[in-house]
Amino acid sequence: MPPSTTNSTESPRGRRVLTRSLDQFFMNMADVAAFVGRFFREAFMPPYEFKEIVRQCYEVGYRSLLLISTTGFITGMVFTNQSRPSLAEFGATSWLPSLIAIAIVRALGPLVTALIAAGKVGSSIGAEIGSMNVTEQIDAMEVSGTDPFKFLVVSRVIATSFTIPLLTMYTVFVALMGAYLNVTVNEQTSFTSYIQEIFGAITYLDIFSSVLKSIVFGFTIGMVGCYKGYHSSKGTEGVGKAANASVVTAMFLVFIEELIALQIVGALR
Amino acid sequence: MKSKETNETVISIKGLRKSFGDLHVLRGVNLEVSRNENVVVLGRSGTGKSVLIKIMVGLLKPDAGKVIVLGHDVEQLRGKELDEFRQKVGFSFQSSALYDSMSIRENLEFPLVRNIRNLSRAEINKAVEKALSDVGLSQTINQMPAELSGGQRKRIGIARTLILKPEIMLYDEPTAGLDPITSIEINNLINEVRERLGATSIIITHDLTCAKSTGDRIAMLLDGKFERIGTFDEVFADPDERIQQFYNYNFTEQKSVPPVR
């Protein structure tokens, strides 16, 4: 039988496909690096789009608040309920508040907020900028003497980098309240001792690393949404793909970043 | 037609080339446009008509050639200079390009508040109301773009570009997708803009009615070059089959058109 010429990297055709894919990958990476670089260059150069940044902060925060509240509260309550049996086996249900505090502050709060925001805010940014791109609104902005990158991208990325850490703090608070409801019903723990146990368990490093991590998550969500929207292909299909890719890529990157943060904070602890 | 003719050249294009990969859309375009002149660019879809006017405002970079608009070499303009140049050139997009998330008032205000500092609220309102009344759409001021018809959106798009009183207007398919009556209104608006602002215009279209009623000269883009430039009658007196096909289709004289292979 003659050797296959289609699915092997040994064959000239296979090598061509691999080379083309690698070329494409590195070109995309260079494009992403240029986009991020442009953000840092333009973010620090006047004129500053304060009004648009404030408007976007309001949009990002307001748009996600109800969903974050519900999700955070349920996460806290369900996590507490599911953790109880394991601790009960050792007669250690009194450790529930400490366990919950550590899990929520270190991981669940920032992650849940980032995932909800990626779905809610990231997709919306990808779709909005994508549709502006498709309908020539970005070009229209440029020819009317406004830098669309600064007006659309810089303002949104700053807004998500600032608002998502705030939303994370709020989610942590709401999740701890959800957990308290469960704890007080089952263990009759008082609010004062619940709070005391929480603050006894967490450290400044936990809070600091969570806030820092959330800033990175927020930056990622905003940047991915803007990048995908800005580079959407023409047509309504392009807008849909941009919105979808914004969510999928942002969620994937959030998990990767969480893994990296875990290693860094683990080394510091 | 042309009201006050001067021979001052405001747009000069020489040897302009532009390709997208293997697709060579512009292959040495030359054009000179005088102040207060309306030039219509005709050509089939995908022949680079829109590319040409996008190069003229610096939205696309040419591969070769020179584009001098209002004395500026567009390719060399950067930053503030480019922004100031763009204020003098209005661009009406094929899709109107109204900002969906803003009301009509905000759409019209946008170029004004972004480019002219220290304007009072009263001055902004006055300019917006004037721009809207000039296109006969004062009642839409508080509506959102999605609530308007195609023709209304087109007129608002033109009003938004006119608010900065440009010296040059570039229209990309101004009548595409519009009914004949609305198309006539848009054609009249294009002529009014020239009369009122003394603007020089380039109108990209494949609507010959629009071309005939707005253009002083017609430039026919064929194979990436302006093969014929002249008045409407001069251009369509040419027996070239490609030009005649264009004419026959638009004026529904479907005689002896060979099938496209």
Instruction: Please state roughly what percent of the residues of chain A sit in beta strands, choosing from under 5%, 5-15%, 15-25%, 25-35%, 35-45% or over 45%.
Output: under 5%
Give start-end ranges of low-pLDDT stretches of chain B: none
The chain-level mean pLDDT of chain A equals 91
Q: Structural class, from secondary structure content of chain B?
A: alpha/beta
> What is the total tally of β strands of chain B?
10
The number of domains of chain B is 2
Main beta-sheet annotation of chain A: none
Unreliable residue runs of chain A: none
**Major protein interface:** A-B, 14 and 24 residues
| Rg for CA atoms of chain B | 19 Å
CATH class of the largest domain in chain B: Alpha Beta
Largest sheet of chain B: 6 strands, mixed
The SSE string of chain A, one letter per element, is HHHHHHHH
- Second-tier CATH architecture of the largest domain in chain B: 3-Layer(aba) Sandwich
Instruction: Provide the helix percentage of chain A.
Output: over 70%
Q: Quickly count the domains of chain A.
A: 1
Instruction: Predict the CATH topology of the largest domain in chain B.
Output: Rossmann fold
Give an account of the 3D structure.
The complex is a heterodimer of chains A (269) and B (261). Chain A is mostly helical and 269 residues long. The termini of chain A are far apart. The model of chain A has no long low-confidence stretch (mean pLDDT 91). Helices cover 85% and strands 0% of the residues of chain A. Chain B contains nine helices and ten strands. In chain B, the strands form two sheets. In chain B, strands 6-7-8-3-9-10 form a six-stranded mixed beta sheet, sandwiched between helices. Helix content of chain B is 37%, strand content 25%. In chain B, 41% of the residues are buried. At the A-B interface, α3 and α4 of A face α2 and α3 of B.
